[in-house]
Amino acid sequence: MKKSRKILITFASLILLASVFALLIFQSSMIPRIPYSAPEASHQSWDEILSSSTPITIQTHSTGIMQTDLSGIMNLDHERAADIQEKIVEIPVNVFIILHHEFGDYLIDAGLDSSYANNPHGTIKGILAKKFLGKGSQEPNTHIAAILEQQNIQLKGVWLTHMHPDHIAGVIDLPKNIPYVAGKGERYVNFRFIMQTDHLKGIEALYEIDFSKGIDLPPFGKGVDLFGDGSFWAIESSGHSTGHVMFFINGADEKVLVTGDACNDQNQFDTGIGPGYFSSDIEEAQKMLESIISFKEQYPEVRLLFGHDHDQ
In the chain, how many domains are there? Predict the structure, then answer.
């Protein structure tokens, strides 16, 4: 009896220690989530959306360069990739400033933070950081906070295509008293001692877009009219990551689809070879790329802006 009790106490102690250790590691990635309350959609189809326009514009800026495996951003197991060799590639890390005549100025993604001017891994630390992450570089004063200051832009909020480090690192340099919005279920990787980023440190809660309340926007899934005036839409695009979001800007001067990493660059669009092993679901990522290609065929007037393209 005493022996059984001793075994039980030992087992319970091990479970407790394991729980404490897990909490210590994963607690930093547990950020509260709040539903984003979107207005009722002003339009019900792409034809309705594209037949209207609003005074909203978009700027593209590069916040630095990442060196990474080609297979990370392109699926080299795809049948069309038979003649493409693995190599290290340098890709820009792009962000987008949205200027709305009524609702103010916003960001899509935050890019690399200012620490990348001096450290190839930025602020990321942990035993797996150097092994699994690409190396970044940045010219001084090209992080997004510096760009916003140069243009005297008072930021109203940040919309995230997804929460991979190269898309959220710049949050470190941004104000924390504004809303940060991502797709529902998007993972935030911030594991103490293992791969600790702290990119969202200081943000009390993350707003989430629930696409179940959106409208159908084929060839994609659901879309949400973020401001309720038809100017700015979030489009569900899971594949590269669980909660990946694309954004559509319905401007008077031009119509733009920001693809994020659902399509990394023009070459990926041209070849039709989907994202690589950085993706949470390679098959779904391939389907999403094919949906983007189909959309562009249907609506050639829409300009595509990619997450990592050199020429935009």
Answer: 1
